[in-house]
Amino acid sequence: MPGNSNTFHLHNTSFKEPVGETNAAYLETESNGIDQKGHARLSKGHLTAIVVEGGGVQKVEQWKNPIEFLLSCIAMSVGLGNVWRFPFTAYENGGGTFLLPYLVVLFFIGKPLYYLEMSLGQFSSYGQVKVWKLAPIFKGIGYGAMVGTWCVLSYYCSLMALTVYYFLASFSSTLPWAVCDPNWPNIICNENKTQAINATKTLPELYFENTVFPQYSSIDEGIGDPDLRLTACLFVSWFLIFLSLIKGVKSSGKVAYFTALFPYVVLFILLVRGLTLEGAKDGIALLFTFDVKKLCEPKVWFAAVAQCFFSLSTGFGPIIMFSSYNPFRHNLYRDAFIISIMDTLTSLLASFTIFAILGSLAHESGMNVKDVVKSGPGLAFISYPDAIAKFDQPVVPQLFSVLFFLMLFTLGMGSASALTSGIIRIIHDQFPSIKKLYVTAVICFVGFLSGLIYVTPGGQFMLTLVDYFGAAFVIYIMVILETVAVAWVYGLSNISRDIEFMLNRPVSLYWKFCWGIVIPLGLSALLINTFVDLEPLKHNGADFPDIAIIAGWILFGGMVSLIPIAAIHTIVTRKANTFYGKLHESLGPAHDWGPKDGEIREEWRTIAPKEKTVEILKRNIKRVKDFSRK
Length: 630
Prior knowledge:
By secondary structure, the protein is mostly helical. The protein has helices at residues 66-77, 80-92, 96-124, 140-169, 203-212, 228-245, 249-275, 280-287, 298-312, 318-323, 332-365, 369-372, 377-389, 396-430, 436-450, 459-503, 509-532, 546-572, 579-587, 598-605, 613-629; strands at 7-11, 13-16, 26-29, 49-53, 56-60, 538-539, 542-543. It starts with 6 loop residues before the first strand and ends with a helix.
């Protein structure tokens, strides 16, 4: 087929590189046949779309089957945060009382946002940057979310490195955190080395702080050099991520069968074991205590939103990327419901499991359950190992330790692979001539290098800093602007019509109310309240040096500035002659916005005329003015 300016959409094809300078693409179909317009007829099996635009060739992957997409989304959404972040966050914010704000946030923010992002990706078959062809002036949202994703990914993999370290240590004949080491500074061990006589901390806590990950009490003098053992574990983590992504969705889809299902097997095993231990009910009772006063505290609702974002991975981009590989008519409405429910149930399952075992640990040590609860990584690397080490039966501690840390790594693998895939998609979309394998290799290697700062003696300070300035606030801003762009600029009527056309089901008032009102206004109110009550950032009670705080604000400012920079670039590069014309063109959908498939695209264009962007903006501005007068 000679190359020209037309667009051809061919399905279920094998791809051969163009030969010479003839600007042509050679494609072989597999018993599907091609009609006169150049559209292949779809048959069963692996679906791969080849798009040829203006003589360029771009290969667009699709999932081999719907199960791989569903499992990949579950593996992405169900991650490390479900095991150690949700239980402690719930406990810290009122126990059972926290479940009410969390479920409200899930229903009015998490689930609607998940459905919206899945719909945008599947409808357009674009990644998280190019999807903003629906309103090009907002493409900076995609880039800002990409940088935020990178910040999270850089420290997320360093936590995976810790799970690798503990996983390997679990094969010792005696678990190393159950033994007192005389070489620990200022520690005196008893004769059989089962106790630190002069220490108030537990052996697992001493093991973590002195053997695994010695940390500075301050980073005023710097963060130190990377630990060689954790560096090796970090490299292993990134290498396994690279292997899982080496063939795109073909390989990551296969990996998802393990990363999505194996953690549930281990969680149920650990839950059964935990419920049989003495004191388990005390731990569970602590998790589900009620403190109604907490419902009036804005920080509890902020924590619920943050947990929802980091658990479902909304706002970061991978949801858009994953759904872009779906067939156009795929039933994502069902998938969004299943994934949001699975994520919540997993958090509750992990909470029952963790706190049942913590209750047993408190019973064994004669302590109050509150005293054995550690926040964040401490829950996984101190409290839980302490409980495992106290199992009396031979081999049982090692078995449960291996299962637990393998489960943690598997959970991290599913989320990290998805986040990495999102970044790879953005880079590859911008530079399609570069083989995706090379892009994947470079991204993984750079990710490994960026993670080295977190395996230094000051690494936990850096994790707190980057998470605070590079993830938490930024994702709030991106999600607010995302919903404003879709609902208020592109228009609720337009996006509803697109989704109804794609799924053949109407968009109810519930979805429109959440996208247009609840998410942008609710998150804006919470964000403003958080900035008003902002307190100096600390790590374990220690202040950050001024240079670190300045660097954090520079990171935050740089990420947010991508939005106006991209907007200015979009306006300047429009073809209109006047500024008003350029602005109008930047706000409206690009000419190539819509379904990728040619026949579906033509059918979509014949539906009822869409409202123009200027008309939508005028109407929405009038509504805001009328509301403010009232």
